[in-house]
Write a structure and sequence with these properties.
By secondary structure, this protein is an alpha+beta fold. Helices cover about 60% and strands about 15% of the residues. It is elongated and about 80 Å long.
């Protein structure tokens, strides 16, 4: 089976959906932030392991605590995943913090600052040109 086969993509999506529901409804660990999002899931083609990329709204401490809470809840999540999904093997879950959303927000702020500076410079040059004409 190829890594990016249709079957593998469907499995990734289904595992992502099931884990999102389980984390939201079943995990009672206070370390796990309620603002946790599963960004992506990569299940290995042999269905032995899965990398779960998560994003947490909050500071670095909340993110680290959420990762610790999810790692401790991994056996429970795996058993619930096996119960809810009919797969030959239930993958071992590895949670990884994903910084892409935070990185995107920071880049968006930087772009907004640059465009605001460019607009301000354009307005100043227009005003200077008008005062020179007078």
């Amino acid at each position: 089976m190829r890594k990016n086969s249709i079957k593998n993509i469907r499995i990734n999506q289904e595992v992502q959906k099931e884990l999102s529901n389980l984390i939201r409804m079943e995990v009672k660990d206070p370390r796990v932030s309620p603002m946790t999002t599963i960004v992506n899931v990569e299940v290995a083609p042999d269905l032995k392991t899965a990398k779960i990329y998560i994003s947490v709204l909050g500071d670095e401490k909340a993110q680290a605590d959420t990762i610790k809470g999810l790692k401790s809840a991994a056996p429970f999540l795996r058993s619930q995943l096996a119960h809810n999904m009919n797969m030959r093997n239930t993958p071992e879950l590895h949670f990884i913090a994903d910084q892409s959303i935070e990185y995107g927000v920071n880049m968006s702020h930087l772009i907004d600052e640059i465009t605001a500076d460019l607009h301000k410079d354009d307005e100043e040059s227009d005003e200077a040109a008008e005062s020179d004409e007078e």
